[in-house]
Every structure is written in C-alpha cells, then in structure tokens.
Amino acid sequence: MIIKARVLGEQIRKEHGVETAIQAIYRDLEYAKSLIKHRKAIAKEGEGWDLGEESWTFIGDESDPELRRRIQEWDAPWASDGAHMHSRKSFQRGRKQNHFAAANLREDASCIVKGVPSIGRFQARMSGASDKARFYLEQSVPELQELERKKIFTKPEITSIARKRSDYEHKLSARGSHRSDYIRYIEYEMNLESLRKKRVKRLGVKSTNHIGQRRLFGLLDRATKKFHGDVGLWMQYLSFARRQGSHKKIGEVLTRMLRLHPTKAELWVWAAKYAVEEKGDVGEARSFLQRGLRFCGRDRELWVEYGKLECIFIAKIVGRRQLLGLEGKEAVSMREVESDGHADVDVISLPTITAGDYGATLEPGQTRQHAMERLDTSAALSGAAPMAIFDAAAKQLGQDGRFGLDFFDMIAEFDQLPCQQTILNHVLDTMRAVKPQTANITIRFVRQSIIGVDSGSPQFPAALTTSLSRIQPAITSLPNADVRVDFRRELISWLLSFLVLEDLDEGLKQVAELSLKKAWSQQKIDVGDHNNVELTNMVALLDTSKGELFRQLVESERL
C-alpha cells in the first residue's frame, strides 16, 4: 500500500493540472469570441449555418501530431466554401491571438514556479484594477472642478493632482499593494489638504473643508480594512480624526478597532484617555478599562491606568469643591458662583459632576450642594476605589513585584489628593508583607513621608526629618550587602534631588548633603571602590544634572 501511494504521488507531481487549465482558458478565450461573431454574421446573412457541438478545447502543445490533425480537420470546411473566406481569416487571426495568449500563459506558468512577477498575469488583472481605480478617481472630479473654478489651483496643478492620484489609485487597486503605498498616498493627501487650506485663507475664498476630510477618511478606512491587523494604521486613523474634531468618526473607528484587537491593552488605555480628556466622561472611560481587563487581566499597565483614572476622578471632585468654596459648614451657594454670565479667566473650568458620578442620591429637600458636602465622609474621597483596584490586581498578577512599584509611583504624582498617604500606606504595607525587603521597596518607604508636601511649606522640614530618620533602620533591615549597595544608589539619587532645588532652604540643603556624604562613604566601604569605578557607575545611572553635581561634589572632596 505504501509503495502504491508513493507511485501515485510521483504521478500526481508530474502532472500540471492548474497550468493546463489556465492554458486552456487563455488559448480558447479569443477563439470562443470568434465563434460568437461568426454565428452572428451567418445568422445576419440568413444562411442558417450551424457549428454543431464541435469540441474546440485543445490542451497541450500544438506540435503534438494529434492536435495538428484536429486543427486540420477543423480547417477543411472553411477551405471548401469560398463564401466564408472572410470568416476564416477572422478565425486565423483568432488563432494567432491564441498563440500570443499561450505564450503569455507559458510565461505565467514559469513565473509561478520561479516566484517572480509576470507581464501576462499583470495584463490579465489590469482591467479589474483599472475599473476600480477609475471608480475612485471619478469621485474626485467635482472636487477638482470646484478647486479650478474658484482658482485655488491652476489648471496645470489640477492635471498634476489628477495624474498623481491616478498613479496612487492604480497601485492600491492592483494585487500586491503594500502598507507603504497607502501611507504615501495618505501623506500626499494630507499635504495637499494643508496647502489647500493655506491658499483658501490667503485668497479669502469660501471653500468647504468636508470634501478633503471625507477623502482622507475614505483612504484611512480602505487602509484599515485591507491591513486590519496593523495597529499603527488604526492609531494614525484615530489621531487624524481627533485633530479634525470628528468625535462621531472616532467612536465608529474605536468600535471596529477594539472588536478586532481586544487583547491590545494600549488600545483600551487610549480609548479611556480620550473619553476623559476630550469628552470629560469618567463613566465611559471606566467602562473601557473594565472591558479591557476582561481580555487583558494580566496586563500591568492596564491596572495602573485604571487606578490612575479613579485618582483623576477624586482629584476632579476635590477641584470642584475648591472651586465652589465648599469648606465644611461654610459653603458658597452654587447659584452665586454660576450667576456670572462669563467665566473667570483665573478659574479652570472643570467638567460638571453629577450625583451619579460619585454614587450620591439626593433625598427630598436636599440640594446638590448638600450632596457635595457629604463627600467628606464618603468612600469616594477616602481612596477606597484605588485601594480596591490594587488589591484585585495583586491577586490577578500574583508575584509581579513591578506592579506595586508602578502603582506607588503613580499615586505619588497626585500631590493634592487628600487620601494620598492612605493609599501609599496600603500599597507599602501590602508589598512589604508579601515581598521580601528589596532596595526599591525600602527607598519608597523612606520617601513616603515627604510625598505630597511642598518644599516651601512649613510642614516640609518635619517631613524631611521623618524620612531621614528611616534611613539607618531601613539599611539594617536589608538582608545582604548586595541589596544594601542597590539601596544606597537609590538613596544617593533621591538626596541629590534636594540639592538641585533652587528654592530649597540652605539649611535643609546642608542636612541633605550631610546625609549624602554619609551614604557615599558607606557605599565606598561596601563596594571597595579604589579606582573610582563606583563613581563612574553612579554618574551613568543618574541624569545629566544630578550626575554632574555628584561628580563635582566627589572631586571637590565635599563627600
């Protein structure tokens, strides 16, 4: 059985069924057309000549004796009847055309085997590609006529634009078009639209902008449909629609994109940021992130962005309260604040917060002002949402230690958050309970007390004293010398940040410099730095300003 299968496989591989079929189609196409013309001519003359059911599909090489015999038999009736010499000449021209088609077919077959382009194959596809390109070019005719009529572009420029678009459209319509072809075409149309807007502004001509915008949207739509797996094209589409202020189009594109790429966490983050920044809709942004977490539950960045969204929401509520002057029992009436017909130039306008945004329901006889005052004791301002997100992410991500550090750094950026220290304490306690003592966690424990405290405020010296007092116990608690070396590198970078502050009190700078000197001396002892190798490593780790300052301090023997 195995031997029979092997023999059968060899026979099949020797055959060229596809090539033969294509050859038959190309060879007999013109021949079939000629037969139709012959029937029409004869029917018009009324002679009633019938071709019958003669087989005219010749497969193989015409040098074959059997094939030559069949062709001669077919030529015999034409030779015996002189009245149809014109039809015979037409038939012979058809046979010559068949020879050219067969030559193209042989070229196609050889090109298929070699994997190279073929002229014959290109000619066979040209009609379809040209029709498709002509369809898109005809749609731009009214636009070009308007540009010429309003003298925004001259006639030679219109001709050049049409020729350029024709070249691009034929490239896109042909088989094998690439992503780069679409990108070049889109860039050309963007530059053309920018030039049109400048000329319209300079000439003072009234012209609609939606035509060029619609054309670019159409190109981007065609590109994303053909290369729907290319995230870069989708992002370019969204960026252009955002610049144009087309929020409806962004909604449509986002829906299509997220359906095709639900496991791309960065796309859910972009959608959430757009909802907050452009529309001011925290609820919609929260919905995007929650849906994204269903598909990307183990993505660290997505969890951090979800926590960041809740912090933005809390900061928005706090900013709204400060804007309305809601400080305890002394509250300013919302009607008094909004009674002015124009906005104050010194006041930042924030999106309106409704009762549904923070989960408060108005009871009979209460106003929105009363609901805002109740937020002092509500979970919305206590940081319950970010802490719940952190706990859920910690269970989902497991032993991913980087997530806790990223979440801590994200919370540290919200200086005016009233629940900032509460959230930081929760994050640190969780990391220190689950993970062993590391340099990254320890340095964040040292920094915690001054996070959110302005360097020019009266509370800063006390906060700095608390942070510096945590250094030595933290070093003692570290498990080995390698971890202590890494911790001191982080500590030196943190202490240098005080020395580069211009508005910091000189006494506080001296305290920070003394702590830096002590840390550097202990670092050289642990590392055994005799050739300034550690100094070179530290300068490489620090940014430019801190690195130069640290080198100057070491070389001047102040450390």
Secondary-structure blueprint of this entry?
Layout: H1 2-14, H2 17-45, H3 65-80, H4 85-114, H5 119-139, H6 141-149, H7 155-173, H8 179-203, H9 210-226, H10 231-244, H11 247-260, H12 265-277, H13 282-295, H14 300-324, H15 334-338, H16 355-358, H17 368-373, H18 384-397, H19 401-412, H20 420-434, H21 439-447, H22 460-469, H23 471-477, H24 481-499, H25 506-527, H26 533-541, H27 544-555
Would you mind describing this structure in some detail?
The chain is mainly α. The chain folds into 4 domains: 19-45 and 83-116; 126-263, no CATH class; 297-340 and 351-430, no CATH class; 436-559. The chain is built from 27 helices and no strands. Helix 9 (210-226) runs antiparallel to helix 10 (231-244), helix 10 runs antiparallel to helix 11 and helix 26 runs antiparallel to helix 27. The protein is elongated, with a radius of gyration of 39 Å. Residues 46-62, 77-93, 95-127 and 328-360 have low confidence and may be disordered.
